[in-house]
């Protein structure tokens, strides 16, 4: 145990590293990246450019050894089988099931700390089967664990992005680290004068609607078809953000993913950004890990017997307990979405706007009348541009 009041740093091996969101956030908190493992060639190009001197390897199934002194494995393991937007095969799927490779490495190297990230739908899919599998493996390897769903908006970025962050340790109770801070945000409910994000690919079951924020950035297709959200701007325009602003919405600097263009076309960058872990969330966890000592009190313990998992929970003496806690550990000042955008956005195409508008009109979803009128005016103007 580290003495109370001291600081510490971890040596982190990043699995399923993507473009390095977790590792960048942890490094900003003073932790060192010892290895990056990523199978996607486009993401590897980014990692090799942005983490000079750090070994970058491919297939995790072929990884046998971690660098000496590594005391944490971190990774946002593949979500395709666990996502509501994916094929929902569950933890037994060929991609999300790769989390077992983390447990293999953790066991063979006796790694004291693990940090995992994934989509909240994993808590409900197949009555929580994914979490059941993960916590059984963790407990079988001697780890105590805690997890919490956190929203990227809490950290000052105008992107509504909720993700599960799970911390496990053989040497310390991880719960006080994750359950620090409990803010109930006063979110904007009036769209007047605000930029509003939505997904133009929806319109039947949902809108992905967000006031002064974009909905969760998505990875898009495996063949590199970009899937940016749309934004209804205060001046009435319907646009999509520049890829450089999408990077900033995840906490990266502009053009962080540009090295991927040396491997494939520019549109692949949207997939990389959509699949990334938000940097400031990882930074917050890294800051909490760097500190030691102290206790956290919380209310709302309910024994978990079966079924879907709650938005936060921890293990104690072999039992799992729910935690009644906000998805916002902090509430950092957030810029208005329209002010946040630094690069000129692109107008949503006539075809995309028309398709979305038809789906919205044929369904029963509620949407502000002013928004429907803005869509109509956008279609009329874009159509006029096409005919001239």
TrEMBL record:
Active site (UniProt): 79
EC top class, as a word: transferase
GO molecular function terms attached to this record: DNA (cytosine-5-)-methyltransferase activity; DNA binding
Protein name, per record: Cytosine-specific methyltransferase
Database matches in SUPFAM superfamilies: S-adenosyl-L-methionine-dependent methyltransferases
UniProtKB keywords: Methyltransferase, Restriction system, S-adenosyl-L-methionine, Transferase
Gene3D superfamilies: Vaccinia Virus protein VP39 (3.40.50.150)
Source organism (scientific name): Saltatorellus ferox
Reactions listed under catalytic activity: a 2'-deoxycytidine in DNA + S-adenosyl-L-methionine = a 5-methyl-2'-deoxycytidine in DNA + S-adenosyl-L-homocysteine + H(+)
Classification of source organism: Bacteria, Pseudomonadati, Planctomycetota, Planctomycetia, Planctomycetia incertae sedis
EC numbers for this chain: 2.1.1.37
UniProt xrefs under InterPro entries: C5-Methyltransferase, C5_DNA_meth_AS, C5_MeTfrase, C5_meth_CS, SAM-dependent_MTases_sf
GO biological process, one term: negative regulation of gene expression via chromosomal CpG island methylation
Cited NCBIfam families: dcm
Family: Belongs to the class I-like SAM-binding methyltransferase superfamily. C5-methyltransferase family.
Taxonomic superkingdom: Bacteria
